[in-house]
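Data availability (excerpt). All sequences and predicted token strings are deposited with the supplementary files. A representative entry, HTH myb-type domain-containing protein, is shown inline so that the format can be inspected without opening the archive.
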Amino acid sequence: MGAPKQRWTSEEEAALKAGVAKHGPGKWRTILRDTDFSAVLRLRSNVDLKVGRGDHCPLSDRIGAGMVALLRLKIVAT
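Structure token line:
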């Protein structure tokens, strides 16, 4: 068993959204290694960053895979 999950901070959410906008969804390890985001996301694993994964993911809202594409378009458009 791992450490208990912590709620996402607004800074982490912003870094994750920017990382997805820059690298695309599914590039979790790349986002974690990017120096623009690594300091903020240092306590998160690539599994934590996956979209739609449980209550601890900032983008979750229990979205389905079909919504990921729409979310990606919305992030890129902003």
